[in-house]
Amino acid sequence: MQRNIVIGLGLLILGNVFSALYDVSIKWLPQESNAAMFLLLRQVTAIVMMLPLWCYAGRPRSQFMKLHALRANSGAVGALCLIAGLLALPLATVGSLFYSAPLMIIVMGMLFLNEQLTRTQVVVAVLGFIGIVIILRPSELNLAGLAVLFSAMMFAGNQLALRKLPSTEAASLTVMLYNLLSLPLVALIAALTGFTGFSWQMLGVAILSNGFLLAYQLFCVLAYRRAQAGDIAVAEYSGLLFAIFFGWLWFDEWLDGLSWFGAALIVLPSLIFPQIKLALAKRKLALS
Question: pTM surpassing 0.90?
Answer without folding.
Answer: no
